[in-house]
Design a protein that fits this description.
Two copies of one chain form a homodimer. Chain A is built from twelve helices and twelve strands. By secondary structure, chain A is α/β, with parallel strands linked by helices. In chain A, α9 links the parallel β6 and β7. In chain A, α1 packs across α2 and α10 packs across α11. The radius of gyration of chain A is 25 Å and the shape is elongated. Chain A starts with a helix and ends in a 13-residue tail after the last strand. Chain A binds a DNA duplex through α2 and α4.
Chain lengths: 340, 340
DNA sequence: TTAAAAGTTCAAAACGTTTTAGATTATTGA
DNA sequence: TCAATAATCTAAAACGTTTTGAACTTTTAA
């Protein structure tokens, strides 16, 4: 492996100048820079990351901890995130180190990785409401960025979507279509996103003088969504459903169908779509109207924010909320006249 | 962060002695060692990995590349392996860096990670027969260890089970029970393990004067296994099935049942069980007789072998074949008399 | 023509370890 | 007692960068 010394020896320059030339410092003569670059290319020079890291004090590694369930399965979105993040981090010469959290104490895995004392920071995702990991890391001054948001006034870098606005958008669309009995089939209330979806839903309904009494918070399984929807259809006669995910929408649409009703003639369905690989909103019958914000889109910003944060950008300048895009397809329509 | 210098200053010792004391070198006086250790403990000293790595020339990071399918799902065993490997590697102060392979060229992801020039080696798993990754890495002199085996005379470190013996064990058991028409529902022939299972099966049958003509190689899906078994039962009247996995066994047993037959009265079933988290052999009805070799057991040996290999142990001393254990349960029994 | 300013380069220190070669002290054998 | 040996410790180099502070060279301004 060629080193800076090799290049400097070959050109009769000092190591310092070679280093600066390759790192684009302005004070090096353009001719020298070119000569240096040429030799570096010829020798196939690649900087030794370890040496760089020793002197800069950073390790070039960030950690991420995968929460896995007892059956050793993880979130279906995991690989989506993994793929995007490793690619985006690689652009900053940074590696992603993974560890697995199977324990009850959600901070234990972080402690273990930190003890090894080699990570520059963490990337967190899927926060619970008032996530204990956040306080743990904040308390120790460990840099991290969060995909999502676990509290109202975060003091840490965060990238996510405005989940209250997501619900509000859906409600607005449906109300404009004449719906008044609107149900929300939400995720589990432990998740921060579900809490926001619910409060956004309630606020949006209230603002229009509607009652938000048809809300079910439960694990985002098709089977659960199916039961909830069937139950609501039987007892409360909603004309529209707002669904927290496409998987939930699948359950809801099945229930509508099994109830002998039709989408969108009798019942409208709107879902939020973070573009999971398996359940594609476009392939529903009819195709789903969604608020769309692909998870994949979060990876690059998250990586950039992590790097910026490590370089000193304060947290308050690293808080981004992406807007979900409303995509109208066939699953929404005017409220059935007779039910108004 | 306390450094060696801090400790040496406090004790009036040289940095060299402190380093040796903490690293257990024999030439340091036991009393000095204790004094050093005491101060190190008090100051909460932890060696700077980056500095260690600069001087030793190793990065302390090994790579693993996850092959994921187009739908962004991966092998169900992935997290099993991930969990075990990160834990085992951590004991050697080594981190696992993950990358994702979604491309057609299986070596592309390795090239990309190697270009970043920061990994000490790779851990490979799930080899195909004559896996192209092996030649790629061997050709470049990159250290790696393989979980499994892709060729007959491997020149690289490998840990796995003797897949030919696995088939042989199953055949032996069934023949001793009086079976003569034995089918093999195997995995896809692209995988190295499936090729070995098949040849082991054929050899074992032949050695007993039986014909091995009831073989199906296909993706290890329950649905495929179901069709193959149903087909074989209708046309060839096997009295026993050897299954490449518990998932396959599930399909086979369903087919036996749907055919109006009973396990083990009419048909015996033996499966290989690598202890996948979802399909537990013990929970079958009747419980499955299996050759058992948990994937999880491979993680620690693999990690140890990786480290040993990096420290210079030659490949030929790092080739271990674990034996699968035969576990007799309710799915096997004597061959039905009338069919012999 | 000369002093100041700007442009360019260099030597050396620093990061925190491990390791080599050598020095000092203690112990042993005769 | 003295040399040889063993035990213990040290100083310094090395790993490959980045960065500091200074030095040298060229250009500019008067």
């Amino acid at each position: 492996m060629a080193t800076l010394k090799d290049i400097s020896a070959e050109l009769g320059l000092s190591v310092a100048t070679v280093s600066r030339a390759l790192n684009g410092f302005p004070e090096v003569n353009v001719r020298t820079r070119n000569r240096v670059q040429a030799v570096a290319d010829r020798l196939g020079y690649r900087p030794n990351r370890i040496a760089q890291r020793l002197v800069t004090g950073r390790s070039g590694m960030v950690g991420m901890i995968v929460k896995i369930k007892a059956d050793m399965s993880a979130d279906e979105t995991f690989f989506e995130i993994l793929t995007g993040l490793t690619a985006a981090l690689a652009d900053h010469d940074t590696d992603l180190v993974l560890a697995v959290d199977q324990e009850n104490d959600p901070t234990a895995a972080y402690a273990k990785l930190l003890e090894r004392d080699i990570l520059d920071g963490f990337i967190l995702n899927a926060p619970e409401r008032n996530d204990p990991r956040v306080n743990y890391l904040l308390g120790r001054g460990i840099p991290f960025v969060m995909h999502g948001q676990d509290r109202d006034q975060p003091t840490y870098p965060t990238y996510g979507i405005d989940n209250k606005a997501v619900s509000a958008q859906a409600v607005k669309l449906l109300v404009n279509l004449g719906h008044r009995r609107i149900a929300l089939i939400n995720g589990e209330m432990g998740s921060a996103f579900a809490a926001d979806r619910m409060s956004g839903f309630q606020d949006a309904m209230k603002a229009r003088g509607l009652v938000a009494d048809l809300i079910r918070n439960d694990a985002a399984l098709q089977s659960h969504a199916y039961s909830h929807a069937l139950d609501l259809l039987a007892t409360a006669g909603p004309t529209a459903f707002v669904c927290a995910s496409t998987v939930i929408a699948a359950g809801v649409m099945q229930a509508v169908k099994d109830r002998g009703l039709s989408v969108p003639r009798d019942v409208s369905v709107v879902a939020h779509d973070d573009a999971p690989p398996l359940t594609r909103a476009r392939n529903f019958e009819p195709a789903l109207t969604v608020t769309r914000a692909p998870l994949r889109d979060a990876c690059e910003p998250l990586a950039n924010m992590m790097i910026a944060h490590l370089k000193g950008t304060p947290a308050k300048d690293l808080q981004v909320w992406q807007n979900a895009e409303m995509i109208l397809r066939g699953s929404t329509g005017p409220a059935p006249a007779e039910r108004n």
